Amino acid sequence: MSSLQVGAPPGLGAAALLALADARGDGGDALRGSALDAARAGVADPGRDGDLARYVLVRLGAASDGGADSRRPTAVLARARAGAADARDALPAAAAEDPLVGHLASLDPALRTLLGR
User: How far apart are CA 94 and CA 67, in angstroms?
Assistant: First the structure.
């Protein structure tokens, strides 16, 4: 499979590709593969981009750990997707603080109910 080139940091690109793949449904397999590749490339970043990469890896089943405990909204997103109870409780506040976190969580079937929307 060839990788789709994205002109964004790898974690952010991976999250965007995953959102597009979800929108395509069953036709989004190539996009999911590209999202996985981008997430693997960005997971070592210690900041926001690494959080987004971890979120994508957890969501695609390629990782089970959402990363280190952090108050960064993107870290809360990744940890909430991995099932951390404290992060799941903190997700609404994280979504209110960072609109990207709110949008990604609202698109995620496992997290949208936590937002109370």
Answer: 16
Calculate the dihedral angle through the C-alpha atoms of 63, 69, 73, 74, rounding to the nearest 10 degrees: -20
Residue 10 · residue 53 · CB < 8 Å: yes
CA distance 98 to 95: 5
- Mean of pLDDT values over 25-43: 93
Confidence band for 10, pLDDT divided at 50, 70 and 90: very high
* HSE-CB for 91 with a 13 A CA cutoff: 27
pLDDT at 1 over 70: no
Q: What is the H or E stretch that residue 47 is in?
A: none
Handedness of CA 15, 55, 108, 116 (dihedral sign): negative
Structure tokens at 100: 């990207």
Per-residue confidence (pLDDT) for residue 8, from 0 to 100: 80
What is the structure's pLDDT at 117? 66
Q: Cβ contacts of residue 104 below 8 Å, gap of 6+?
A: 15, 19, 55, 77
